[in-house]
Amino acid sequence: MFGATEALRGVDIEIHAGEIVAVMGPSGSGKSTLLHVLAGVLKPDSGTVVYHETDITGLNEAERSALRLSEFGFVFQFGQLLPDLNAIDNVTIPLMLAGMKRREALRQSATWLDRLGLDGHGGKLPGELSGGQAQRVAIARALVTAPKLVFADEPTGLLDSLAAENVMVTLTELARAMGTTVVIITHDPRTASYADREIIVRDGRITAGQTAEAAHR
Amino acid sequence: MKHGYDRHFGSEKPLAFGQVYATLARLLRDGLIDLLGEQAGSGPDRKRYEITEVGRARVTAWMFTPDTPEPLLQSNLFAKTVIALLLGDDANRLLDVQRAAHMRRLRELTAAKRGADLMKILVCDHAMFHIEADLRWIDLTGARLTELQTQVTGA
Fold first, then answer.
1. Which of A33, A94, B96, B131 could form a disulfide with A7 if both were Cys (CB 3.0 to 4.6 A apart)?
2. Chain B 99-118, CB below 8 Å of chain A: which residues?
3. Domain assignment of residue A126, yes or no
4. For A97-107, what is each residue's pLDDT tens digit?
5. Which residues of A touch B131 (CB under 8 A)?
6. Are residues B60 and B114 in the same domain?
7. By residue range, what is the domain housing residue B58?
């Protein structure tokens, strides 16, 4: 329960290491709430979220924050890059928050921008990038710490078809190469088709798609 | 000719050799192509054909006549949905089953595009947009099931 509204109910899912899973459902179905609960951003009133044998609902805010920083990466709709920092500085943020020296963070960030086809764009502000380029910077920022798990919330929401395709190919190919687990929240079937399977959320419940048991078979 | 056809259009269903000869004979009979002559080579002699003006006009007419937009799946799925509601069955589950099948096909097409040439990618994209249209219909119908049930059953 969050406030007076019951956002999720009876949700039982299992996501395996290295899997790419799409969570689909109409607006207001509870899919974003599910992402926030899985990522330890929101603490549910009841139930557990187990990550590598740790029940993260039992951790305090500081512990959950540390877990997010060290283990998780995030890609949001239209990147949510810091507008006053250029592309490369945006990518360095999670590295510097983890205690890395600026010079090394810049070196690693530049390598990631190159890898994502953004060679020469590192000095540009987010407002000077196209939607697809900004989203690839966001992917670089999410993957630069080599997270075990990436949460992507509507990563193609504001992009045209071709830019969306490039973003999804980039995200999923890199994640598969790194063995990173990805949870993609989307209402777009084509974006979901890059995942190994989909989970459908409706009215706060998992109503269709492959359940944990089905995924084992 | 067969190889040219297969390279552009035959990835799903290559052209049968028999079909090539039958089609050429029909085009010749209808005056859409002319026989230019025979060309000797290492194998059997090759016949060479040329498209006629009438043939070119026919191709142009075919090319610029729009195809009829057809409701491909909806008629059947619509019927199933209404019948499920009439029988008091779970129409939501029916839509979920169809959605899962569509998503499976969409994943297959996305996988088929990986590393494919542009021709193949465009063919896959065309199929994917049609599947997406069906999925939008499925989602919208799912959101309207209660209203539809009232209309269908008069309840």
1. A33
2. 99-100, 102-103, 106-107, 109-110, 114
3. yes
4. 989 999 999 99
5. 189
6. no
7. 14-64
